[in-house]
Amino acid sequence: MTSFVLHWAVLALALWLTSQIVPGVTVTGWGALAIGSAVLGVVNTVIRPVMTFMTLPLTVLTLGLFYLVVNGAAFGLAAALVPGFDVASFLAAVLGALATGVAAWVAGAVVKPGASPAAARRG
For residue 71, is it within any domain? Predict the structure, then answer.
């Protein structure tokens, strides 16, 4: 349970950072940020793998570049489901998905879920 809450908090931080950096991605309040990060986590866990599988031939044909479109569509879907979390255009959705992914990766690397403080001190 702690890992889930930590992952949700990291995703919320990444979404907030994305709304500050990417023009066209807006989150109007803390409630929208909390619900938006939860919905984005569900969409990334459930719907994006299905979309990835369905578009696999096109992704292979474009040498993986179409995966950016899949990520943007998943990000836009999450924004469409949450009031107060808005994406202005498809380009903003693709850039938002890219920025959220990078920010979550960096924050997750800093937080390192599952690692005990003693193990982190040992090296």
Answer: yes
Residue type, 85: F
Position 62 in a domain: yes
- How many structural domains compose the chain? 1
Residue type, 68: L
* Containing structural domain, residue 60: 2-20+27-111
Residue pLDDT, tens place only, 100-117: 989 888 887 887 755 555
Burial 16-45 (b: 16+ CB within 10 A, else e): bbbbeebeebbbeeeebbbbbbebbbebbe
- Written as one string, the DSSP assignment of 34-78 is HHHHHHHHHIIIIIHHHHHHHTHHHHHHTTTTHHHHHHHHHHHHH
16 within a domain of the structure (yes/no): yes
123 lies in some domain: no
Task: Kindly report, residue by residue over 25-51, the tens digit of the pLDDT.
Answer: 999 999 999 999 999 989 989 999 999
> What's the whole-model pTM score?
0.84
